[in-house]
Amino acid sequence: MGIKGSSTCQVFFNDCKVPVENLLGEREGGFKIALNILNVGRVKLAGAAIGGSKRVIDASIQYANERNQFGRPIAKYGAIRHKLAEQAIKTYASNAAIYRCSQNIDDAINDCVASGMDKESATLEGIRQFAAEAAILKVHGSEVLDYVVDEGVQIYGGMGYSAEAPMERAYRDARINRIFEGTNEINRMLIVDTLLKKAMKGELDLMTPAQNVAKEIIKRDLPLFGICLGHQVIALSQGISTYKMHNGHRGINHPVKNLLTGKGEITSQNHGFAINREETEANPDIEITHVHLNDQTVAGIRMKNKNCFSVQYHPEASPGPNDSMYLFDEFIQNIKNN
Ligand SMILES: Cc1cc2nc3c(=O)[nH]c(=O)nc-3n(C[C@H](O)[C@H](O)[C@H](O)COP(=O)(O)OP(=O)(O)OC[C@H]3O[C@@H](n4cnc5c(N)ncnc54)[C@H](O)[C@@H]3O)c2cc1C
């Protein structure tokens, strides 16, 4: 379809012997290097996409100033000016993010070297730390380019569709960027996976921002219903700590008692942490509404005089099967009241 200046073909290396002095790193360590090459490639792809965007913006501006319709250059019309502005806005944002990420990677590599790592390992580590950002830049840069080129075609009007003018080629050439270096679908999944892995390793603090959001919602008394981790986020936001349970609660048929109604609920649960019961009981703003009947752990709380409640279990997956549906009814009612 496009990038016709670049030949694309498959290359096979079957039983290919690589001289020891040509090894890029440790034997069996190639996969790590290959993954990091993809990370660097994604940052570079974003840079190339922004280079393409800038060229298309230049051509769009030039054409908009040259092409006269209804007695004036089309650059004088608001609709065209809006397109040019949007092209510039999106390109600038992507451009700035690429500079920032590239500097962050350089800084991380230098920090690793300063802490005694050899340059090769430091480079791999520095790039690894920004794998999510590399994927974000790749997705954003390639989609900005497609947007910019599409609007470029539109600004050129009929000539945008003609192979005589530059936009037709730009349109075809741009399209590959959403496909290679990992499709944008795969990169989107990678972003989430990488961020969650970082959070699990303690490299990324997701909990404090989540608690701040909960605090803000509670302060404004907006409706809030926490489920599982959401329940713990609400408790943490109110100064109640969590602790790691011995085995956690996993699976279906966990019996819970609703202390407000005295009724039992058969629930689905999947958690390894629980909120501290003594601290919850001592908190004047919070009431325990549900307990787990097997071990008396806190299974639900509500904030007194607020539209905020939460449960440790999963009412959306109730094996009851409808025992816990009243929670959603209450939450929806809270939303309607607000
Ligand atoms: C011009 C060109 C140059 C290339 N250059 C190189 C190169 O230099 N080096 C190299 O290694 N490769 C290169 N490639 C290959 C390129 O990286 C792959 O084509 C690309 O990664 C997509 O893989 P695929 O074609 O097998 O698509 P598929 O994996 O078959 O994907 C098809 C569709 O399904 C989606 N999809 C697949 N799996 C999932 C999933 N789990 N969840 C959701 N959606 C999914 C994809 O996003 C895509 O939309 C090149 C390709 C082209 C066209």
What does this protein look like?
It is a single chain. The chain contains ten helices and eight strands. Strands 3-8-7-6-4-5 form a six-stranded mixed beta sheet, with helices on both faces. Strands 1-2 form a two-stranded antiparallel ribbon. The relative contact order is 0.09. The structure holds flavin-adenine dinucleotide (FAD). Flavin-adenine dinucleotide binds next to helix 6.
What topology emerges from the helices and strands here?
Layout: H1 30-66, E1 68-69, E2 72-73, H2 78-114, H3 119-128, H4 131-156, H5 166-175, H6 184-200, H7 207-219, E3 224-227, H8 229-237, E4 242-258, E5 264-275, H9 277-282, E6 286-292, E7 298-303, E8 308-311, H10 325-337
Parallel strand pairs: 3-8
Antiparallel strand pairs: 1-2, 4-5, 4-6, 6-7, 7-8
Helix pairs in contact: 1-2, 1-4, 1-5, 2-3, 2-4, 4-5, 4-6, 7-8
The site of flavin-adenine dinucleotide has 9 residues, from α6.
